[in-house]
Write a sequence for this structure.
């Protein structure tokens, strides 16, 4: 009776058919099954096909490199990709403010703690602060500039609207909603 065929005895064409259905985590796990599997997945032809499928730009960048080191190029990229997929972003972001003007309520103190509740912002008729998911937007008091920031990437953009009478309505990842306030003379006429 003939011995059963092992994974390492398979033709590379069969592996080429499997690779599009495997994600990077599956490929890295296959390499960790045994020493013979690791050697099989590190073969030059398989490593080139893996790079062509998962990281096509890697072949373009290292086109002049020796094909024998393709698995050495694929592995660090694959592990970096897995780290980005598996590591959860930080739950809290800390922003260092460079100017005191960036603080939205710098001249109005917060209320005292009320029986252990969280601090409350002062009651305001106009909304000059909005927050949604990781996005935050506020309007500076003296310059009327609007600052929009992403707390996850810690990037901020400042812009100056044409009218100083603009209020922040809402903010999302892709959209900043501004509201215009009515003219005081219009209120007097009505």
């Amino acid at each position: 009776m003939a011995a059963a065929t092992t994974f390492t005895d398979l033709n590379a064409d069969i592996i080429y058919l499997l690779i599009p259905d495997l994600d990077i985590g599956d490929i890295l796990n296959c390499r960790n099954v045994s020493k013979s599997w690791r050697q099989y997945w590190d073969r030059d032809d398989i490593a080139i096909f893996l790079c062509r499928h998962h990281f096509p730009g890697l072949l373009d960048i290292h086109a002049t490199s020796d094909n024998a080191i393709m698995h050495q190029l694929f592995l660090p990229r694959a592990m970096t990709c897995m780290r980005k997929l598996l590591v959860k972003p930080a739950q809290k972001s800390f922003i260092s403010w460079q100017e005191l003007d960036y603080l939205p309520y710098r001249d109005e103190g917060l209320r005292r703690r009320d029986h252990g509740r969280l601090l409350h912002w002062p009651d305001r008729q106009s909304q000059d602060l909005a927050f949604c998911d990781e996005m935050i937007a506020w309007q500076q008091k003296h310059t009327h500039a609007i600052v929009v920031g992403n707390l996850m990437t810690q990037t901020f953009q400042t812009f100056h609207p044409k009218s100083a009478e603009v209020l922040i309505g809402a903010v999302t990842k892709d959209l900043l909603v501004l509201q215009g306030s009515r003219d005081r003379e219009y209120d007097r006429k009505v």
